[in-house]
Structure formats: C-alpha cells, structure tokens
Amino acid sequence: MSGSNMSERAIEASSGLAIEGHSIDYIPENERHAKLSSQGPFWFLGNFHFFTISIGFVGPSLGLSALWTTLAGALGIMFGTIFMAFHGSQGPEMGLPQMIQSRAQFGYRGVILALMATMFVFVGFNVVNVSLIMGGLEHVFGLNPTLVAVAVVLVGALLAIYGHDLMHKAFKWALLATLPLYALVTIALMFGAGQSDVAPATNLGFNWVAFATLFAIGASYNISYAPYVSDYSRYLPKNTSRAKLIAAVFLGASLSGGWMIGLGAWLAQQLKASDALVALNQVGSSMIPGLGNVLVLVSVAGFLPIIALNTYSAMLTLLTGVDSIKKITPTPRARVLSIFAISSILLTCVLSIKGDGISLLNTFLVLLLYFLVPWTAVNLVDYFFVRKGRYAIPHFFTPKGIYGAWQYRGIASYLIGFAAMVPFFYIVDATANQEVFVGPLARLLNGVDIAWLVGLVVSGLTYFILSRSIDLAYEHRVIESITEKDFVSMAHTSTEEER
Asked: In this structure, is residue 69 part of a structural domain?
C-alpha cells in the first residue's frame, strides 16, 4: 500500500464523520487506533437496553418467579459471555473480522456454511429488535409501525455505513443517556413505583424446565455475540493484553445482561408487563408526569446503535460470502450497496412477520443458539487448542493458500454437531403453549433443553479429533516465511483493483 493511501485510510478511520476505509480486509498495525478502555463500556451497552429487559419477561411467562428468572438468566448470560469474550481476543491478534478468520476452519469457500448461520443471527436479531420498537412506540405514542420501522432501519444503516469509529462514539453517548435512567427505574421499582393499580403475580415459582429454558436463552443471547466481537476489537493494537481484553468484554456484557434480565423479570412479576417500552413508560409516569415518555424515547434512541451493530456485522458477513464465491474489492461502494441490500431484506421481514413479540423473541433466541453453537465450538477449539493463535493471514484471502477452498474438518464437525443436537431440540411457542418441535430425547428429559451443550461438546470434540491430521509443522514454516512485504502486497493488490 502506498504511503498516501495508508494515510488516507488512517484519516478515514480516525474521523467520526468519514466512511470507514476498511471492511473485510486486514487492519495494518499503524492504523490500530482503538483503546482497550472502550471495550468494557461498548459491550456493557450491547446488553443494556429494553431488548434484554424483554428476555426477563420470558421467565414469568413460563411460570418462573422473578428471583429464579434473574438467577437463571444471569447464570446463562455469564456462561455465554465466556465464549463471546474469548472470541474477542482474536480481533487484535489478527486484525480481521470474525468470519474471515473462520476460513481457517471451513475453507475459503466452505466458510459460506458458517456465514449462513451468522447472517441468520444478524438479520434475525434486527427483525426482533425493530418489531419490539414498533410495538412499543405504537402502544405508548400511537405511532405508525411502518413509519417507525423505516426510520429505525434507516438510522441503523447510516451508522453502519460510517462504521467502526462513529459506532463506538454512538455507543458511548447512548450509555451516558440510558445508564442514569435505567438506574432510576431499578431503584423506583424497588420502592413500588408503577404498582398502585396492578396486583403482582402470585402464581409464579420454580420449575426445572423453565429454569433450563431461561439459562439456555441467556447463554444463547451472549453466545450470539461471538461472531461480532472481533469486528469491534480488530482496531486494537496487536500487543493488547489478551487477559485484560477478555475480562473487559466479560464484565461489560455479563453485568449489564444480568441487570436487565433481572429488571425485566421484576417488571413482569410486579406489573405483569409484556412490553418493555410500555412498562418503562408506566414506571416513569408513576414517578413524575412525562418522565415515562422521556424513558421510552431515550430507550429507543439508545437502542439505535444496536440496530447498527447487527447491520454492520451483517455487511461484513455478506461481503465475506460474496468474496468467497467471486473475489471482490471491499470498497466503500461495496459497503453501501451491501448495507442497502441487508436493510431492504430486514424491512421486508419486519413488515411481513406478525405475532406476539415475547413469543417471537423466545423462539428466535433458542433457534440462534442451535445454529451458532457448532460454529463457536469449532472456531474456539481451532484457535486455542489446535493452531493456538498462529495463522498465515495473507492465506485467508486466497482459495489457493494453506487453508484451501474447502476444509472438511470444520464443515463435518459443524454438521455432525448440529445433527447430534436435533434429538434434544426443545422449541415451543410459549404464548400459545404449543410445541413447534420437540426432539425425542428432549421429551424424555421433560423439556429440559440441553441441545446447546450437546452441540458444544460434539462439535468441539469432533473438530479436535479431526484436526490431529493437520500438518502444523508445515503451517508454521509457511507462517515464518511470511514477511511484511506479503501484507503490503496484499493491500497493494486491493488498492490496484479499486483503481
């Protein structure tokens, strides 16, 4: 890469009002301008919103008390965050988006299998996100759901187009706005705010099926962040402490997740709430007239960066998928076109899907766990136990490199792990009290969902066994032969193609 091009991209990366210069390409060391101190707050806000509050409603809808819902949700969140945090450490060490890294396990073209699973997560999350905003604003302000959907998707798309730096700033502003308000709501609820005309639910208690379901939902919620984390940590310097980064991501995501699920559980039990924005409006209005409306508006505004987060990572996934079929140059134009396509699909889905928000949320979170667990097991086993963080980065960008076009080990491990999970699937429509799909072994376990655990063990163990045939000595020789010129050549090729 020429000096002028490098400085141009560095300026783009450091300016909050310029479109980010990078997407699925490698981030050179001299452009790693992010700070470790930003990761904890960033991932704290990642769970600090009314979507997570809505997860707390699922427990009482299954007959679980607020206390047991809080405990199950918090334990699940912490379990899922372990995987999420370890994925985050890959960003600064390789300077690449998460799904580009997966080419080592699945191959240059074979990674499309994992890309389909993660694209389902990114788009699906936003479908539920926007649906919750539409329903909440319609109930509170009577706003037209279609106009709300268009506005929310548009703002998320614009933030995603500008990219990494502006999104980090948006997360910081959103946290500063929402933290004092959610703290106020939590304290007010402890003193009975909003409960004057509502009798608390008294028929709630404990049952293992509901507890296991909440644990699985909490785990899936933060495991679902696994394909994201490197996307937002890849601008950190390569020498960033792995332990400190893992700790920052873990503490940020697990503390806010546990807090919001607990808040949702108590709102559901004490106010019989089924819509997070409506419940926040009720609590706020009971304290100060008009405060409820402020809470709702700030909550929605603070949630818009989350819409952008999903859109941004979906863009990286789509570009990776297209590049895996036909080599492309990750230009700003490609970025804008991919975000436009993703936003159009999102809007179509949102306006087409009807149904109860909590039921949709419950079913979706269970499904995404099933799709992501085999991938996260394969990726982490490869990174920490097989290749131990040693990769030939220029070889991620060619099907003729040491990782090849197809890697049967990763593909087979994913498919075997997913197949092993199917008999344990437990998918129900909680609101309608109807079974969607219940596997025979899940029925024997009285509905306790351990499919995710089976998937983790089977996929991870299968990949570890199959990877014994990898010639790591040869890979290490290739890695040692890579020079700075190879990285410069890789970037120069991208620049020439762009011209």
From this structure: yes
Give 197-221 as a DSSP string.
T-PPP-S-B--HHHHHHHHHHHHHH
Q: For residue 11, tell me if it sits in a domain.
A: yes
Give backbone dihedrals phi and psi of 304, rounded to 5 degrees, phi first: -60, -35
pTM listed for this prediction: 0.85
Contact between 106 and 410 under an 8 Å Cβ cutoff? The reply is yes
Q: H or E segment at 54?
A: helix 50-61
Q: What one-letter code names the amino acid at 35?
A: K
- Comparing CA positions, the residue from 377, 378, 363 lying closest to residue 425 is 363
292 within a domain of the structure (yes/no)? yes
Residue 410 · residue 387 · CB < 8 Å: no
How many domains are contained in the chain?
1
- For the purposes of burial, counting CB atoms within 10 Å of the CB of 444, is it exposed (0-12), middle (13-18) or buried (19 or more)? exposed
Rg value, the chain, Cα: 22
3/18 Cα distance (integer angstroms): 19
**Helix, strand, or coil (residue 428):** strand
User: Nearest to residue 257, comparing CAs of 491, 472, 46, 498?
Assistant: 46
Using CB atoms within 10 Å of the CB of residue 468, give its burial: 0 to 12 exposed, 13 to 18 middle, 19+ buried.
exposed
Q: Do the beta carbons of residue 145 and residue 135 sit within 8 Å?
A: yes
Single-letter code of the amino acid located at 223: I
In a domain? residue 317? yes
Contact 307, 149 (CB under 8 A): no
Instruction: Compute the distance between CA of residue 315 and CA of residue 310 in angstroms, rounded to an integer.
Output: 9
pLDDT digits (tens, 9 = 90+) for 386-412: 999 999 999 999 999 999 999 999 999
pLDDT digits (tens, 9 = 90+) for 158-217: 999 998 888 888 998 999 999 999 999 999 888 877 676 666 766 788 888 889 889 988
Q: Do residues 283 and 188 make contact, with C-beta atoms less than 8 angstroms apart?
A: yes
- CB neighbours (10 Å) of residue 69? 31
Do 270 and 89 form a contact (C-beta atoms < 8 A)? no
The answer to whether the beta carbons of residues 265 and 56 sit under 8 Å apart is yes
- For residue 9 the two structure tokens come to 């991209």
323 with 202: CB under 8 angstroms? no
Q: Which domain holds residue 244?
A: 3-373
Distance separating alpha carbons of residues 348 and 130, to the nearest angstrom: 12
The H or E element that residue 3 is part of is helix 3-14
CATH code of 135's domain: 1.10.4160.10
